[in-house]
Amino acid sequence: MRPRIIVHNAVSLDLKLTGFDVDMELYYGLAAQWKEDATLAGSATILAAPGEAPPETEADLIPPVPVPGDRRAVLVIPDSRGRVRIWHYLRQLPYWRDFIALISESTPRDYIDYLEKRHIKYLVCGKERVDLKTAVERLGSEFNIKTIRVDSGGALITALLEAGLVDEISLLVHPVIAGKESSVSLIHELNKGKIHLKLCKAETLDKGLVWLHYVNASEQGEYSS
Bridge partners of 203? Predict the structure, then answer.
């Protein structure tokens, strides 16, 4: 049985992810209820995050010491092209206890060497690109991950939907239409047919925000409980 996967995003009325001010406190307050074992983020999302990573030092190559009882999530990033090279900076942030890169057989050897030198765990899943279904199953079986929250843009979300891996969708809808201020959409064009959702919560919050929580009626029952 694979882990349960929840897509949680802050969106505008036109389902854009950028181009408006997000109520981050409320967004992460809602996210905390899932107590995820892993946060799944696309490489583009990580690289687009504001702020510049500091230079790497020799201290960043020292293996981190696990903290007993640390309940923070593991950060998982699909990155078959080997673009994310700021793992040392991610380690300095207080949000995650460990890190896993998802790569493929086509990932450059120099990137694998880079990960190994920095003691970043990785899973090889797929030939040319990361096979998300295999990756998710291995995250469950090899790392005992039961709940994954997706904190990412439309490319990864769309790929997960097409693979039939999304169990729930949570949207914090902001009362704004981003329009041309954003080209980043929640979902790209789906190659898969209709995906039926069941609304399990619709809650009006402060400042005109609305929280919508859906379960995927087409994929129910496939994840581990």
Answer: 211
